[in-house]
Amino acid sequence: MAGVLVIEDDDRIRLALLLALEDEGYVVRGAATAEEGLRAQRQDPADQVLVDLMLPGLDGFECIRQLRRDDDVPIVVVSARDDTHDIVAALEAGADDYVVKPVAIKELSARLRALRRRARTAAAPVPVYAFGGLEISPEEGEVRRDGRPVPVTRTEFRLLCELAEHAGRVLSRQQLLSRVWGYDTGDERLVDVHVGRLRQKIEADPANPRHLVTLRGLGYKMQR
Amino acid sequence: MAGVLVIEDDDRIRLALLLALEDEGYVVRGAATAEEGLRAQRQDPADQVLVDLMLPGLDGFECIRQLRRDDDVPIVVVSARDDTHDIVAALEAGADDYVVKPVAIKELSARLRALRRRARTAAAPVPVYAFGGLEISPEEGEVRRDGRPVPVTRTEFRLLCELAEHAGRVLSRQQLLSRVWGYDTGDERLVDVHVGRLRQKIEADPANPRHLVTLRGLGYKMQR
DNA sequence: CGGGATTTGTCACGCAACTGTCATCCGACC
DNA sequence: GGTCGGATGACAGTTGCGTGACAAATCCCG
Fold first, then answer.
1. Structural domain span for residue A195
2. Could you tell me the maximum CA-CA distance found in chain B, to the nearest angstrom?
3. pLDDT tens for residues B100-149?
4. What is the C-alpha to C-alpha distance for residues A166 and B123, in angstroms, rounded to an integer?
5. Which bases of strand C sit closer than 7 A to a protein CB?
6. Chosen domain end from A94, A120, A146
7. Is 0.70 topped by the overall pTM?
């Protein structure tokens, strides 16, 4: 199948979107819940996915994360909520774009086209960050030390990915709070605690970290 | 160059965007006209471009087309006009995203990040100041002598960065106090002490400094 | 739906490292 | 040789970081 999967619980809106997109020349399919959408995508992947944030059961954010876990499919959020925090959270979760309802179908269509163009040109191998015996694979959602999987929690993983993505650069506690947690403000000790926990898991000698190092007064960084 | 190029004619808005993005950890550069932006991008390409639609001379749409012709760089339109027709036209012209002013910087930053993830933009190289065997890398938070990391404290590091940034120029103790410490007034001896400590760490012969030199009665400067 | 396990965020404390001040010494310049 | 600006060593106060304990939130499983 080639086309668009629309995950939206409101029957009227879903139908309207499906019809309008069909009119624009897309092959379409709908799902009323995140679970249904995920199942559909697994069985017979669409080229692009539209997802609402407020879904019954599994919510939109989690839906995005799970879609992303299996797949690099372009995801556009279509939400009624026009709130920076939601937008940031959705994009962080893995969405590619976020539009606010009601949306002009021409705009939606143009955004889908732009995204498809971008996704096509960028078909690339799965990136795996490696630091000595430490491997971090954002796509797989896995961390390995000397080839052995290390169990890390979601927050730890996001933190690790953020650091790995900017390997060699200092990231301040503020930057980490903002990028990993989405906090504008908050207790910086929180970062310390998670870094500490991460070190217990990924460092040979957690008291003398070789990869996840502290720069006193500046922040943390991943060392190659 | 690595980072974000902002093409926007309104000085106030451009400056605000640049500062905010810098705050988010981006390396930034601005251009006031499409022509200037295109030239900048050709000479020294940024990883991502922000462009306003209403520009004097060459307009935003044409600017996007020309950027696209040379390059696959991710382009985000930041416009005051919230009009489906403009949005569609901009995306058709080759833009990847379109946000309406005023925009929350957090949202913009998240969109840039999402786009970068999608475009798999090459990781930005790390800028480094070099003075003979002495390297100072603000991004990495590291100082190296002959390739070996030298442990410096935060204050020392800031001081060194300030001097390195204005290499070859004298900086008075007052200027340093103000830029490094944020003091309007204070004991100038403080600077001496930190310079001394720094010399112990980065100079081969601290008593006869070659890079961090004193200009009696004037201040200090970094010597190439 | 319920209860146990896991994860997450907060807090307070202790240690180590850093900062700024001061007094003294030194060397350049007139 | 005198004077002035700069260097330096010592020290006490402060700051920043790591950590263990704990409570709240969330997940997971039947």
1. 129-222
2. 69
3. 988 998 899 899 988 888 876 544 556 678 888 898 998 899 999 998 99
4. 8
5. 6-12, 17-23, 28-29
6. A120
7. no
